[in-house]
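[retry 2/3] protein-glutamate O-methyltransferase: previous attempt timed out, resubmitting with same input.
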Amino acid sequence: MKKMLREEPGESVPPEPPPLSDREFTGYQQFVYREAGIWLSPAKKALVVGRLSRRLRELGNPSFGTYLRRAEEDSAERVRLLDALCTHETHFFREPRHFDFLARDVLPRWRAQGDTGSGEGKRVRVWSAGCSTGEEPFSLAMVLRHHLPAEEGWEIDILATDLSTRILEQARQARWPVEKAVQIPRPYLRAYMLRGVGSQEAWMKADAHLRALVRFQRVNLNDENGMLGRFDLLFCRNVLIYFDPASRARAVERLLNHLHPQGMLFLGHSESLLGLGTRVRALMPTVYAQRAPPAGVSAARG
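[retry 2/3] protein-glutamate O-methyltransferase: success.
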């Protein structure tokens, strides 16, 4: 273990950035809401200070107001600011009833009928929105690959997206602390995860076949994303809780526009579509399908 570093005589300690005023915090609230649709409550003021102080020290300790103006004028700094303020909490097979529903009801039906009902045969498209460090898309990859074998002609394409470029770079590595192995059912763990050796023994990694099923892209749910196409399964779990009602409604409309008419939308356990329109019907709590459009009206397209 490394020893704690002591301050040497004459060595100066970097000063702390100037405090965040209420007026400056209001500016951050408006900026994050405008850029990402996320509303920072007053209780998040300490979070803003904690997550941005390091960057301010790197820049020579400008005020929070000066830094915000820099981010508004510099697209790269804007992304860096949003990266810092995004919350990332996840684990493998989080909210297991969703994966049980896929394994018990959905995937056996698709396999028996030889297609997903989307008109694309044995090609399955999945979107994991707000993928964080990758545990969700790779959990999906394990379940789908297990139940829809490649030797039967099933093609699996999982798009994993997040607002944070920093977290996406981490997710692309498909590498996690080995302690997370306890979150993965043993048959999947044996089939799809590699244990590190030597200097890497504290880590595990998804094997190459599983990694080939997942691709990553930065997507802001507050923007229109018309080029993504449509999906059979759309996981957007524990993301909408950070949106206010207006931005949540807009995000849901955009998500539904990317869902095949026969597709399914999965939300987090504390989220629902109550009061967000009549386009969907519940298959089970937090799992939704689109209602059939009225006669003569085509389904919404992405």
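[retry 2/3] protein-glutamate O-methyltransferase: The chain has ten helices and ten strands.
[retry 2/3] clearing retry counter.
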